[in-house]
Amino acid sequence: MIDVSNLTIGYKDTTVVKNLDFKLNKGEFIALIGANGAGKSTLINTLIGINTPLSGKISWELKSTKKNMFNDVGFSPQSQLIDWYTNVLDNVIQGPLLAGYDLRTAQKYAKEALQLLDLYSLKDKAVDHISGGQQQRVQIAREIARKPKLYILDEPTTGLDVETSENLFKYLKKEVEKGALVLTSSHDLTLLEDYATQVLFINDHAQKYFGSLNNFLNDSTSLREKYLKERGK
Ligand SMILES: Nc1ncnc2c1ncn2[C@@H]1O[C@H](COP(=O)(O)OP(=O)(O)OP(=O)(O)O)[C@@H](O)[C@H]1O
Question: CATH for 2-62+149-230?
Answer without folding.
Answer: 3.40.50.300
